[in-house]
Amino acid sequence: MYEPATITHEQPPCTPLPGDPLSTSAAPPPGAASSRLTSAALPPGAANSRLTSAAPPPAGAGSPLDSSYPPPAGAGSPLDSSYPPPAGVASLPLPTPGDAAVAGALRADAAPSSIEIDLPPPTIRRLPWRTDRRSQITGPMQLVLAPEVAAARRPIVALESTIVAHGLPWPDNLAVARELEDTVRQAGAVPATIAVVDGAVRIGLPGDVLEQLARDGARFAKAGATDLAIHLARGTSAATTVSATALLAAKAGIRVFATGGIGGVHRGDAADVSHDLPVLARTPIAVISAGAKAILDLPRTLEHLETLGVLVVGFRTGELPAFYARSSGLALDHRVDSAAELAAIARCRWDDLGGGGILVANPIPAEAAIDGLDAAIDGALAEAAAAGVTGKRLTPFLLARLAAATGGASIRANRALAVHNAQVAAELALALALAA
Ligand code: PSU
Ligand code: MN
């Protein structure tokens, strides 16, 4: 059974491992160990909260997000004792018990009305992978919540970052990323775009980081759930795919996640099955998507979803949508017509049955749909085969070739369907709040 992370574990002073490149640095000054919020800094009763906010690390030198990256050796190094401390988060309102329970973030009986957080300013900033090193036996991972997420009094909707960094071209990708977030906000929920930045899991990205993700997407690796450990351990940065985003969102207690289209079984190569599928099967989250991307083998993808045990529900449709088109001709077993009913199904699946992922298949709005892309998709697949593109590069390559072949029409459709998914995701998050 899936166990979410807690981030209130009291952090022992960081003991350098033998061979640790930083083991010669001085022990952290008193107080520094609690600079990223741990249970030690929290009032009684907050210990069960998984939404205690870690102070975001400063956007600082050494980050690939810096325009000056890589930083010159010496000046501005994260190891420099004059390195600026993280901005403190003084007094964060917590979600109401109802909201938080929806997000799975707090136990209702343990929710304090607010947390007074007193951040001692650290005199050195340790690298995230060093700060985060905890008990080697039980230490839970650290999640860095954006202020908007940490302060959320409303349900949270997770958004992925691979669609931004690798799925859409600059500058459309930034416009889409912002529109997704704004759509969630306008619907009354709180967006949390998830990515790994310098080895820290970010639940919610500040505006400048979102922009760098879009502008410098190539500097972010494409991380599936399996790859995350590499980036966390090495302190590197990665955009998260559906699998990685679902895993991290669930660890943060978020139960609803919007994307464009999930990965699946690639056409022609039935052995190339996206890691999105097995992770969805075991992760208690509802993913709102326009089905699987149309570049995929949709019948095989649907079969795999069934075999793995992902609950697939058509939202106001009885068919699997085909991403850019509203229908694929593939019938679904289940159709649901309201967010309230979706929420009731989700509660039964997770709370009563201990079940995992739900794929909410939400068709693209009719006015934005494009039919008849088959020739363009076949052309893109042929180009990929000719260029020998496989593995992680395949999906971004196909999406880019399709955009070129359609004169950008596929990008407009991708944007419309993703925004629609964000809208439905927010409605589901709110309905889950009421069903709590
Ligand atoms: N939805 C989109 N565009 C995308 C993706 C989803 O509209 O680029 C991303 C998601 O992150 C998904 C990934 O997990 O594509 C699938 O990649 P692959 O086929 O390599 O598993
Ligand atoms: Mn693949």
Compact summary:
The chain is of the alpha/beta class.
Give the overall shape, derived from the CA principal axes: globular
Q: Give the number of helices.
A: 14
Q: Which sequence of SSEs, written as H and E, runs from N to C?
A: EHEHEHEHHEEHEHEHEHEHEEHEHHH
CATH superfamily label of the largest domain: Indigoidine synthase domain
Largest sheet descriptor: 11 strands, mixed
Count of the separate structural domains: 2
Class of the largest domain, according to the CATH hierarchy?
A: Alpha Beta
Give the termini separation: 21 Å
Poorly predicted runs are 6-117, 120-138
CATH topology of the largest domain: Indigoidine synthase fold
Helix content: 25-40%
* Integer average pLDDT: 78
Give the radius of gyration: 21 Å
Written account of the structure:
The protein is α/β, with parallel strands linked by helices and 436 residues long. It folds into two domains: 1-76 and 94-125, no CATH class; 142-435, 3-Layer(aba) Sandwich (Indigoidine synthase fold), CATH 3.40.1790. 33% of the residues lie in helices and 11% in strands. The protein has 14 helices and 13 strands. It has helices spanning 97-102, 128-131, 147-150, 162-167, 172-186, 207-215, 228-234, 242-251, 276-282, 298-308, 339-352, 374-387, 394-405, 409-435; strands spanning 91-93, 114-116, 143-145, 156-159, 190-197, 200-203, 221-223, 238-240, 256-258, 286-289, 311-315, 335-336, 358-361. The strands form two sheets. Strands 3, 4, 5, 6, 7, 8, 9, 10, 11, 12 and 13 form an eleven-stranded mixed β-sheet that branches. It has a two-stranded antiparallel ribbon with strand order 1-2. Manganese (II) ion is lined by residues 272, 274.
